[in-house]
Design brief:
The chain has six helices and three strands; from the N terminus they run H-H-E-H-H-E-E-H-H. By secondary structure, the protein is mainly alpha-helical. It has a single domain, classed as Winged helix-like DNA-binding domain superfamily/Winged helix DNA-binding domain (Arc Repressor Mutant, subunit A), CATH 1.10.10. Strands 1-3-2 form a three-stranded antiparallel β-sheet. The longest helix is centred in the N-terminal third of the chain and has 24 residues. The chain is globular and about 55 Å long. One of its GO terms (molecular function) is DNA-binding transcription factor activity. This is Putative MarR family transcriptional regulator. Keywords: DNA-binding, Transcription, Transcription regulation.
Length: about 140
């Protein structure tokens, strides 16, 4: 018999929602960002000139969520949109100077939140958790 509280996909979803919700409140209060906007900023901080399609793949968010987040960031002047290659319809996104400055403020806070979240776990447990999550992600892609 399926018991929802013992069903791993449900546990992962609930845990993810709880963690995201706690972090989202911090990003909203301190920086005026929603989680999708923060994720795009974080990806763009690692690699400039990323298309929205590539952001969808990297963040595993749906197209509409990425599009709305990108538009909000462009409107705020945190991200610039430039033509991508010879395709006039495709654009690449990059952090503006203001976006980079905001990232420089957010990144330490993100690391602090992660540290607080993981305080109850030992170094080995954190490493094992990351390995297990990577395996589950890979297995989930195989199910698609």
């Amino acid at each position: 018999m399926l018991r929802l509280d013992e069903f791993l996909p449900y546990q992962l979803s609930v845990t993810s929602n709880a963690v995201s919700s706690a972090i989202a409140r911090t990003y909203e209060v301190l920086f005026g960002l929603r989680v999708p906007e923060w994720r795009l900023i974080a990806v763009l901080a690692e690699q400039d000139g990323v298309t929205q399609q590539a952001l969808v793949a990297r963040t595993e968010m749906d197209k509409m969520t990425v599009s709305r987040a990108a538009q909000a960031l462009v409107t705020r002047g945190l991200v610039t949109r430039v033509p991508h290659g010879s395709d006039k319809r495709s654009h690449a996104l990059a952090l503006s100077d203001d976006g980079r400055a905001l990232y420089a403020q957010i990144a330490p806070k993100a690391l602090e939140l992660e540290q607080t979240l993981l305080e109850e776990l030992g170094t080995r447990e954190v490493a094992q958790l990351k390995l297990t999550l990577a395996k589950l992600k890979s297995a989930s892609h195989a199910l698609r």
